[in-house]
């Protein structure tokens, strides 16, 4: 606990003790029949304390204050229980059947012994009950029901602030990031200013826009801390949907937020598809009195509470460079320009940068700080951290293939190397040489790989990923496209938003599923399909990484779409020379080979994908025979592969094999 917190707790305990002694003195006088006597008033405390803050924040009357103190005294000081027992009168008119006097406070007792008593203090919408400062016994005549102070309120009066345990399943604390960019600090300042400049008693709700969910969450936490508030993130999915269960929880939160200077953070990502969650969020914004931050761009609709929208811009490369330099310290000087490469490729949150540098220090130097982290390990750590939620949205493909594994005509290989060069030099040309400032459109690097199945399209993507040391993710467009209007754009948005941090290579399979020719618009679904195409093209053109689309038949694609791609690469059916080269490379060095004639194998008119399947099948047959792979094994495997294709081997293809 900080010194300030310790002082506040001590002052609160002293103020409560003094207030209880004063009330106890008044009750003793009332018991002695000297109700008109005025006891000594408590001294005013120079330090802020919980009792004064509670009275001020909830606006309690003198009677409500004394009633709350009466309940607190009953819990903390046994003298109150004894005194209450003597003060309470039997509720039965027949003295022969008088039960032992009750020792807990009730409202009739409070009205009889406390000054300025009023029935409205116990009404359902009174501040004591609405704010959950007290709890009233559920059954019996209202005047005779027991009254107790809520546990959280009692602890607060003694100087201990805590969250009601009934709220714990729905809330989790969140901390601000250890590093912030200049732009993020400006975003936080704008949000805090919106609260501080509010002209009404209830501050506006802040809606944070832009960036990813984790970064916005950190900015929301930093905003709250700067405003002197403690933030909690609400789990909307866990919150009861029935109003009869939800509303009491909102009352508890409103009370604890006022007592403990708390703020609520509600994350809006993906709420647009859940009308119930949106309705609940609107209810929260309208109902809760304290500070609320909404994270995300979902549109809530009209509310009776003002809403201040604050846009958070992505960190510039200069800001990213500053974050890395601050996190690495003197070790940044030893990276010899590699830091610029990291900054150009990855857009990471300040907390991720801090975590990566700590990991690199520990892994390189046995857990001791102060050494020089390895640039290669930093790059690999960036890849791991930047994946974020992309692993949940797409299939990550290990980049096992190299240029030596790729068998293509030289013109195609030349185009692939050009693609790699464009990705590698993208930041230098766009940022340092000013092309991004001239026009932000069309800066994404896109390529179309066209060719029949098995001609090497996926392997080429693997080669590029290995060459560039980037992750490769396959997105099945046929699965991404939804029949429900608007869902396809949401699916694509999730993918691109998750990929932005790493600039991973995105491989969109089955582009025909979305980019087929549409000569005319016949119905609303055609119109929305065109919108889906436009959205994907916009995201591809703005994406800071490489997006590859594949198709088996380029002629099935709309020409207008094809013209907007930077590279178009045809993967031809391999000729005899290419098939021979594939056969020469298809078996791993560890595989025992027995007199395979690649010139004869090359007569099989199949693609590289089929050759791989045949080779694997032949290896399994040879292993079962406990021999090396022979032409007989390959022949058996070739028959099986052709059968899958609905074809038969011709005599010309297998003549002279065995």
Name the descriptors.
single chain, 658 residues, alpha/beta, Rossmann fold, six-stranded mixed β-sheet
Q: Your description of this structure?
A:
This protein folds into five domains: 3-157, no CATH class; 165-311, Rossmann fold (3-Layer(aba) Sandwich); 317-386; 403-570, P-loop containing nucleotide triphosphate hydrolases (Rossmann fold); 576-654, Helicase, Ruva Protein, domain 3, CATH 1.10.8.60. It is built from 29 helices and 14 strands. The strands form three sheets. It has a six-stranded mixed beta sheet with strand order 3-5-6-7-4-8. A six-stranded mixed beta sheet has the order 9-11-12-13-10-14. β5 (230-234), α10 and β6 form a beta-alpha-beta unit. It is elongated and about 125 Å long. Mean pLDDT is 85; it is low at 91-100, 364-370 and 517-528.
Question: Care to give the gist of this entry?
Answer:
The chain folds into five domains: 3-157, no CATH class; 165-311, Rossmann fold (3-Layer(aba) Sandwich), CATH 3.40.50.300; 317-386; 403-570, Rossmann fold; 576-654, Helicase, Ruva Protein, domain 3, CATH 1.10.8.60. The chain is 49% helix and 10% strand. It has 29 helices and 14 strands.
